[in-house]
DNA sequence: ACCACATGAGACATCTTTGTCTCAGCACGG
DNA sequence: CCGTGCTGAGACAAAGATGTCTCATGTGGT
């Protein structure tokens, strides 16, 4: 049954192509289908066989990113323990997806009727719920809305991903920089 | 001497076109030259008479943004008083340019040899110097590098501008949300 | 009234990207 | 050894954006 093997190979290739595209578009968001194909080591024709067009590719990248974010959200166990530790876990888990997230975050400024809107909303809600929980527990200040904290997290992830990719900050500091700034801010505090 | 009047009119129009373009590109970063022209209430031909092409337009927008940022930096008096108050003043003063800054911040991910690089570097340096001053004064924590704090400021300004333009956060909270998150973080603290 | 000059409208060629198609090569299983 | 079917290379047209050009129009100063 060749189509089983075929299906398997397709899946592997599709995933590889998707990850190559993510890596490239993270660095150059305006990359051509041709450049994406070359980056994946395949021809443009084959790229088109996997993804009907650029829209389909971006859509698939959205689906991938949403899946990775959900995985990170699960792995971070947002409901366990103090909210600030959950935030640290979340940043750590979501780091591998930060570049792709940054690409889609800016790209999606244009999407009117986003087909993946439901997926993004789910993620937004889970993150916002974490911040709300922290506020309810008295851990987080209440003058910053959960919506803004969520938005700020995305912004910091994007900034961090770009800053790392351009060598302005060290990659190993990514998690610490983002989580600690988001949690504690720039001001030095006496209490640990 | 018609060319004096002419020169004056040119300057006025050019500025108006530039600001219309900034407002449009803030919302839709892929807007066409035609859309930019319509947004400014002029024809594409006239737009081309003012700006040789899209590159020239973006370059002029960079120059405008740099100028506005420098003005904001001056107005914020970064060397006066506590660094954290200087940061608050800076965020307040730079708010009007935040949208344009967000556009150029993402757009410039592509610019290799940025003609305005010197201008951006100057701004980066002034902001980083502020954070360094705060660290030296013991106000700011030293585990977050000035470069990262600068980058984070840009990221938060961009997030804030988008969140406001899409109605996810209230425009009147812009300054407070950004400055207080950047300074104090999400964690509630006892000390004022 | 005349003239200079900026403007708007539109035609036009060009360039880039995209999407589709064909064809030959090649690997893989039967 | 022989097909099946995926792949790469390339040709092709279509679409969108850009840059340039011309011409008619209107406005403002002389």
Largest sheet of chain A: none
Arithmetic mean pLDDT of chain A? 91
Largest interface: A-B, 49 and 49 residues
Q: Please compute the radius of gyration of chain A using only Cα atoms.
A: 19 Å
CATH fold node name of the largest domain in chain A: Tetracycline Repressor, domain 2
Order of helices and strands of chain A: HHHHHHHHH
- What's the CATH architecture name of the largest domain in chain A? Orthogonal Bundle
CATH superfamily of the largest domain in chain A: Tetracycline Repressor, domain 2
Please state roughly what percent of the residues of chain A sit in beta strands, choosing from under 5%, 5-15%, 15-25%, 25-35%, 35-45% or over 45%: under 5%
Task: Give a verbal description of the structure.
The structure is a homodimer of 192-residue chains. Chain A has 192 residues and is mainly α. Chain A is elongated, with a radius of gyration of 19 Å. Chain A starts with a helix and ends in an 8-residue tail after the last helix. The N terminus of chain A is likely disordered. Chain B binds a DNA duplex (30 and 30 nucleotides) through helix 1 and helix 3.
């Amino acid at each position: 049954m060749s189509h089983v093997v075929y299906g398997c190979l397709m899946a592997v290739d599709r995933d590889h192509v998707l990850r190559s595209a993510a890596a490239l578009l993270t660095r150059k968001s305006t990359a051509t289908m041709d450049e994406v194909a070359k980056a994946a080591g395949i021809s443009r024709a084959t790229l088109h066989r996997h993804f009907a067009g650029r829209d389909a590719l971006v859509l698939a990248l959205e689906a991938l990113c949403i899946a990775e974010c959900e995985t990170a959200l699960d792995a971070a166990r947002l409901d366990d323990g103090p909210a600030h530790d959950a935030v640290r876990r979340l940043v750590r888990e979501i780091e591998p997806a930060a570049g792709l997230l940054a690409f889609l975050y800016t790209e999606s400024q244009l999407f009117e009727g986003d087909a993946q809107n439901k997926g993004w909303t789910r993620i937004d809600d889970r993150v916002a719920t974490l911040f709300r929980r922290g506020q309810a527990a008295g851990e987080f200040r209440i003058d910053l809305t959960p919506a803004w904290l969520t938005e700020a997290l995305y912004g910091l992830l994007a900034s961090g991903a770009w800053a790392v990719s351009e060598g302005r900050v060290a990659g190993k500091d990514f998690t610490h920089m983002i989580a600690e700034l988001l949690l504690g801010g720039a001001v030095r505090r006496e209490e640990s």
